[in-house]
Amino acid sequence: MGTEVSPGETPTHRIALGIAYDGRSWQGWQKQPHAQTVQDTLENALEAFVGTPVSTVCAGRTDTGVHGLNQVIHLDTTVNRTPESWVRGTNAHLPASISVLWAQQVPAEFHARFSATSRDYTYVIINSRIRHPLWHGRAGWVFQPLDVEAMRQAAVCLLGEHDFSSFRSSQCQAKSPVRTMLGLEITQQGPRILVHLRANAFLHHMVRNIIGALIQVGQGRETVDYVERVLVARDRTKGAPTFAADGLYLTNVTYPDFQLPVVSPSDVGLEFLKTGPVVV
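RE: above sequence
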């Protein structure tokens, strides 16, 4: 593992880490001048642990307020530490809202972003007449009754490969709006409605814009064919407002060519955030 070096040089190792975070405290994943991001805070903790600056690459950049159950990152370093040391040593310098869950040395060809074949997200909606403070920042709230079956029917058109321009933020930097939705499932557990999505990759605000459109259908403001009409339009102005970030969780990233630790939602008592959604 690592890159070849000349005699006398210190070899570089590539390390993968699994990261969890409560997005309420942070202005998204990606580094910013104000430094109030998960990446800024993680890299500062890593530097404090190893004693040298560290740059990280993540599987998928999450927005302000979005939560991470098993974000995957990689870094290159000449420092030799055991996996347990990477976990405990880094966590010693992190706030309570961010944690390293696991660490593993990986081959040099591993890339947290480009080696991933799919990402899983779950969006949590609390459908209740009165908002509940214990869900603040942890779920999207809709007080009007939602027709979940209508939402399921509306979502079918999103499966497969499509141009998702209508669900893409105007600030999205992706070169192509084409993505493949591999699975989408909508379930209900009392007042909690869960939208599980799996795609090869997601565009900026794509999930939140899809949720916004599905809620329009669930509220009866739009007919079941609304989501398909928006999708075909390939025009963001035809879509619904972007829904709140509060209920969005990155739950899993898949790397079929690399054996990385798996963090199941049930491991941390969040069974409802399941990974691997099935087709509607």
